[in-house]
């Protein structure tokens, strides 16, 4: 039966140490010659699999040792990375359809488009600043423009520039701003406030 554990107290000069099995249990003696395949020297903390055996004195030793290579797990932001462009495209498609059907005033569509361009540019400049050690755009500014309606452009920028897409804390706040903005948009359209704003703008442009 094979066990999995981590090497402890490794003495590299003498080529031995111990392994403590995951989940608890007696630790076993590890010798460098007991590795079946070894591309590099063992180190303390290294994860290995092994078969425990007792020597002639009844001491536990690890045999048939193999290094365990863990596959990196894709975190939540990585799983979302493939959805960023589709989400932005679908959102604008819905807005455009609503405009064609007379449900969404043009001012709303234009506002989201303009703010998305601003957000995309801000992400691009911040990415460039990060590479060149220049003055960075505060994250709060990126969140504000997303909250105001630039989040579709921010999604595209995160995907294109690979910027801020893996920072968990940033992503948590970002998706909160997306949710708040969408709720505000639903309220704006349901209460017909957007129509009132459009009428006002039309009057100003016509005067």
List strands and helices in order, with pairings.
Elements: E1 3-11, E2 16-21, E3 28-31, E4 47-54, E5 60-67, H1 76-81, H2 84-100, H3 106-132, H4 139-161, H5 168-190, H6 193-206
Helix residue percentage: 40-55%
Number of helices: 6
**What strand order characterises the main sheet?**
3-2-1-4-5
Q: Count the domains.
A: 2
Summed up, what is this model?
By secondary structure, the chain is an alpha+beta fold. It has helices at 76-81, 84-100, 106-132, 139-161, 168-190, 193-206; strands spanning 3-11, 16-21, 28-31, 47-54, 60-67.
Can you walk through the features of this model?
- This protein has 207 residues and is of the alpha+beta class.
- The protein starts with a strand and ends with a helix.
- The protein has 2 domains: 3-67, Beta Barrel (OB fold (Dihydrolipoamide Acetyltransferase, E2P)); 76-206, no CATH class.
- The radius of gyration is 29 Å and the shape is elongated.
- Strand 4 (47-54) and strand 5 (60-67) form a beta hairpin.
- 53% of the residues lie in helices and 17% in strands.
- The protein has a 5-stranded antiparallel beta sheet, with no helix packed on it.
- The protein has 6 helices and 5 strands; from the N terminus they run E-E-E-E-E-H-H-H-H-H-H.
- Keywords: Membrane, Phosphoprotein, Transmembrane, Transmembrane helix.
- The chain crosses the membrane at residues 83-101, 107-124, 144-161, 173-190.
- Residues 2-67 form the CSD domain.
- InterPro entries: Ca-reg_mRNA-binding_domain, CSD, CSP_DNA-bd, DUF1294, NA-bd_OB-fold.
């Amino acid at each position: 039966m094979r066990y999995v554990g981590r090497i402890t107290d490794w003495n590299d000069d003498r080529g031995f140490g111990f392994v403590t099995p995951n989940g608890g249990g007696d630790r076993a003696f590890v010798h460098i010659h007991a590795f079946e395949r070894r591309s590099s020297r063992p180190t303390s903390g290294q994860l290995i699999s092994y078969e425990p055996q007792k020597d002639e004195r009844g001491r536990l030793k690890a045999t048939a040792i193999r290094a365990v290579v863990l596959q990196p797990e894709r975190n939540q932001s990585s799983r979302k990375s493939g959805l960023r462009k589709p989400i932005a495209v679908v959102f604008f498609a819905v807005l455009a359809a609503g405009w064609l059907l007379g449900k969404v005033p043009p001012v709303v569509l234009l506002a989201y488009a303009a703010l998305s361009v601003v957000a995309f540019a801000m992400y691009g400049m911040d990415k460039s600043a990060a590479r060149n050690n220049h003055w960075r755009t505060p994250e709060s500014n990126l969140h504000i423009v997303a909250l105001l309606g630039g989040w579709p452009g921010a999604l595209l920028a995160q995907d294109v520039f690979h910027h801020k897409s893996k920072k968990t804390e940033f992503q948590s706040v970002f998706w909160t701003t997306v949710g708040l903005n969408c709720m505000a948009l639903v309220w704006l359209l349901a209460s017909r406030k957007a129509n009132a704003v459009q009428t006002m703008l039309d009057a100003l442009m016509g005067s």
